[in-house]
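During the reporting period the student researcher (J.K.) took over the structure-prediction task from the postdoctoral fellow and processed the backlog of single-chain submissions. One of the processed entries is reproduced below for the supervisory committee.
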Amino acid sequence: MDRVDAVHRHLSDRFEIIGIELTPKSSTYAWESRPSKTFEKRTVFADRELPSLLMRVRKMLAHMPPPRQTCFFLCHYQDPAIFLLAAILRVRGGRVSTMNNSKFDDKPRSVWKEVGKSLFLLPYHGVLSTGTRSNDYWRFLGLKAENIAAEYNTVSIERIRRQARVPPAPNGPAFEDRHFTAIARLVPKKNLSMLLSAYALYRQDSTNPRPLHLCGSGPDEAALRQQAADLGIAEQIVFRGWLQDAAISQTLGQTLALLLPSVEEQFGNVVIEAQAMGLPVILSVNCGARDLLVRSGVNGFVIEPDNPQGMAYFMGLLSDNEDLWQRMCRATNASASLGDVQRFVDGVEALTS
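J.K. obtained the following structure tokens:
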């Protein structure tokens, strides 16, 4: 919504802007779909359950404007229905780009699967990508460098700060009143078990350890609660459950630093949200967001996803050294605009010129 709204605000004098969602519900996230007050928003299917492939394509086409002289930006290029849709739009004269943030190091790669992916990209003129590793991956799959634009992963810095109801750090709540926060689905790839181990190590060495708030839901919740009990840290771990975007912004407004130790993370939009509130981030090298947004020792720290000792050490540094924390907050505020939706608008302009 942030991205399409920004495109509407900046480019509506040149284009009619239409946002199309397949369904108002996600099978992965509990986000709430909301109406648009600016651009035209269309919903293809009212329910989460989708019909057959051909019916999906037919219904999506019915919601599309005439392809000729139209620029289309589609997610999920690997979905057969989206591939067919893209091919039809291209044949009918549309200019079609995909939006994706995959990286080569997200998971083990198979040669034949990569060949198949390159075929799925044939209908596309270009890609709206994000970060250096993602850009490299699209070149590997055969797209020309001049047809790769950035940045796809962006959010509205202004919206986050407005929702937080407090100014970005180091202003706002006092240093000593802040807690650590992790915002992630409770699933294995988010590596929250390692985070709990790191928190236990941090707590052993800290004279005044801060609580850790876990914001998210998922199948690993029971196991994580049991691990916290086994480590003797259950009273310091606050399981917040799934939070909608306004509550996330308000939580970040009370936070000392964001923690994101994922073993697989194409990007990590929550890093932008944290930086909008002036926060340092401790994240794993696997997170795509570190390419563009995090400079270790400047506005955060980068760790290996199997290194709880390193994460605990950096947590202790930020928790006990207010001068360091304030310096990192100032550096974060200076670079926060790198994740703003204006960068998405720039990418759309590049692929429509």
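The committee noted the following: The mean pLDDT is 96.
J.K. will present the remaining backlog at the next meeting.
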